[in-house]
Design the sequence.
């Protein structure tokens, strides 16, 4: 089990790395050149800036049993296809039971935006969301450690 972080816009990179270190798990931060990350524990992979370049690198690296941290439902779907576990930045586990509805919501929102409808962005992040993420990641690791 490794932890792969889609770090472009991810608010829980430090927490993910800390938990990986606590559990002695390999951890990889993947981001494009628009973002800069350093870690004394995790490997950092910098990919060319461009639509989905970090996502494609994560899919390429992903193996069954890895944990992928991402808020991108398209990336989540591809990683689920490779039998990885997926968590979003708020601690919601994305799985075969909810991925279809998440992808449909994404599709519907894109249709509205393309039609000129202005949608609200996400609410300001709360400390509770980070706490929920940490708890969910620890539970996921505990459930699946060999």
Sequence:
């Amino acid at each position: 089990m490794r932890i792969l972080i889609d770090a472009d816009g991810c608010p829980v990179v430090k927490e993910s790395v800390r938990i990986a270190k606590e559990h002695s798990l390999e951890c990889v931060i993947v981001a494009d050149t628009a973002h800069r990350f350093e870690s004394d524990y995790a490997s950092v992979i910098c990919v060319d800036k461009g639509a989905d370049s970090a996502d494609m690198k994560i899919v390429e690296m992903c193996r069954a049993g890895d944990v992928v941290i991402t808020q991108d439902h398209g990336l989540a779907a591809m990683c689920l296809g490779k039998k990885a576990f997926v968590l979003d930045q708020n601690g919601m586990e994305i799985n075969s039971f909810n991925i279809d509805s998440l992808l449909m919501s994404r599709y519907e929102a894109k249709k509205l935006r393309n039609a000129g409808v202005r949608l609200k962005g996400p609410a300001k992040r709360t400390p509770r969301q980070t706490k929920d993420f940490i708890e969910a990641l620890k539970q996921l690791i505990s459930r699946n450690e060999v």
Summary: The CA atoms of residues 59 and 94 lie 15 Å apart. The two ends are 9 Å apart (CA to CA). The chain has one domain: 2-144. Residues 127-144 form the longest helix (18 residues).
